[in-house]
Write a structure and sequence with these properties.
By secondary structure, the chain is an all-alpha fold. About 65% of the residues lie in helices and about 0% in strands. About 10% of the residues have low confidence. This is MxaK protein. InterPro entries: TPR-like_helical_dom_sf.
């Protein structure tokens, strides 16, 4: 009977040690996640290689925040090539759309009031990025909102801002003579 009790004590002791080691491991992982979350909340770049996605995402976000939309889009596009899950891809597409939308909105108009070609291209690419984000995650409310906002802001009839030149005279010669 004494040998049996010693054997059970040994088994329970090993289980207690395994549980303790597992708890230490999980506590360390939790501490690392909290550290990364605090860095992200503070707007800092994520340090360390344990969270490569978050590190690259924050670096690209900082580029966009600084107004370097072209490089931010490139950094986000590089993230798409790393084999992400659908929700992560949707988040990356959403951020690509945000940076393209901002880049398109800061472009100036041509002298005749029409959008510059670069702005048209960026706005069309932003629309594609938002739609792709919604294909990957149909419940992505921020992407839905930004897509609808972009469609409201996107000037489809920008030609209406052109100056009416019919009937205007250049020097003394009327425009539109037969």
């Amino acid at each position: 009977m004494g040998i049996r009790i010693k054997g059970l004590n040994l088994v329970f002791g090993l289980l207690a040690i395994a549980g303790l080691l597992g708890s230490i491991y999980e506590a360390n992982a939790l501490w690392q996640r909290q550290t990364v979350n605090q860095q992200i909340k503070a707007g800092e770049l994520v340090r360390g290689d344990a969270y490569a996605f978050e590190k690259k995402m924050m670096a690209a976000y900082k580029l966009g925040e600084a107004g370097d939309y072209k490089h931010a889009v490139q950094s986000f596009s590089q993230l798409l090539e790393t084999g992400l899950s659908d929700p992560q891809q949707a988040l990356v597409q959403y951020n690509i759309g945000n940076n393209l939308l901002q880049a398109g909105l800061v472009r100036r108009l041509n002298d005749d009031g029409s959008l510059k070609d670069e702005a048209k291209y960026e706005l069309s690419q932003a629309r594609i990025a938002y739609e792709q984000a919604l294909r990957l995650d149909p419940g992505f409310r921020q992407a839905k909102f930004n897509l609808s906002l972009m469609l409201l802001v996107q000037p489809n009839g920008i030609e209406g801002l052109k100056k009416e030149q019919e009937g205007m005279e250049l020097s003394n010669i009327p425009v539109g003579l037969p």
